[in-house]
Amino acid sequence: MSEIVATGEHAVGDSDREADERLAVLAEQVLETASRLGASSAETAVSRSQGFSATVRLGEVETIEHNRDKSLVVTVYFGQKTGSASTSDFDAAAIEDTVRAACTIAKFTAEDDCAGLADADRLATEIIDLDLEHPWDISVEQAIEMAKECEDTARGYDARISNSEGATVNTHRGSEVYANTNGFVGVASGTRHSASCAVVGELQGNMQRDYWYTSARDYHDLESMASVGRTAAQRTVGRLGARKVKTTQCPVLYEAPVAASLLSHFIGAVRGGALYRKASFLLDHIGKPVFAEDITVSEYPHLPKAVGSASFDGEGVATRTRDIVKAGVLKSYVLDSYSARKLGMDTTGNAGGVRNLCIKPGDLQFEELIRTMGTGLLVTELIGAGVNNVTGDYSRGVAGYWVEGGEIRHPVEEVTIAGNLKDLFRHIVEVGADVDTRGNYRSGSILIDRVTVAGE
Prior knowledge:
This protein is α+β, with helices and mostly antiparallel strands. The chain is built from nine helices and 17 strands.
């Protein structure tokens, strides 16, 4: 079996490399066992992860959590009958039992003509060093001191900060091997570090809370602990004195961290599983306008250090940079091999989801977007999950700020925004340059020109 190994070269300890190599050997053994038990083809994903987090609240250590996890999932095919089983026990006897269980399940399932491994000609043949591996040699004691600095900064920012939900520092490293009987073995490993803080403010009996966080593959790219604490406090104090607004129709500006949710709803509607089940409001929309005409939504799976970066998807298929929406027009769906076959199409290399989805930013910074909006609602928090993927109907509770004359006037709470996602997407007038790069969905703040706001 040919071997493709993606293990970065950035301060990875020998023990980590050796452990990753053992995972690859284990994956090949799983496939050999499946073949010995009669499977016509098989695939497996073997993973391990480890890390810890330290949480401080009101200046005292609240929790210290260490995690060390491992899992093995195997899927076998007897022709086009499929069976899957999993285990967290890597003992040889346990793995044998797991593969046998998958084979037994497969023998009792109905044939599915769309089942099977990804086509061999779609598999990745080149592994790109995406700079995802940056271990953080930090002790629990150091993490505690950093969390204390973060929370102390937040609590000391303003006398109206009355309580704290704590500050947390977290470090994590994970590796996964995917292998199949078409000859693919791929190892993907990476690190992720973060710090967060949430505090409570009080004014005349009215209490509000807000938070902030920083997250990165490389700990050098994290915001300072003081900055995280200060931002959490500023956001909390800014919400004090919040009130409702009258029911109206007005422009709505989604702050960048919540604007990414609109991309998430969009991807949910163009994902293969929703499409072949005919449970999407964007069914049969390839080649049709779905966004405002100057909107482009693209996937960039090869960005260095990014959260979603990967050379291959969950089936070993090579990932690639591509436009999903170009000039407002839907160019492609989001498909794995199974959903592609159900739809009579080709996989787009999205087994496991999209990777670093970006909506093309404009030139305006956040403050300029507020001035451009003039009068309307700035949304900084979304509440509830009132989204119907079949119809596109959209209703979310929100908190944020009322804007008049291009300036923030007062905080807002207990209001709802409603509409249909088709209309919201088509009425985007600006995407800000203030792109939030902390997550897999990357967006600047998004301004929509007319949305129903339900309040008093």
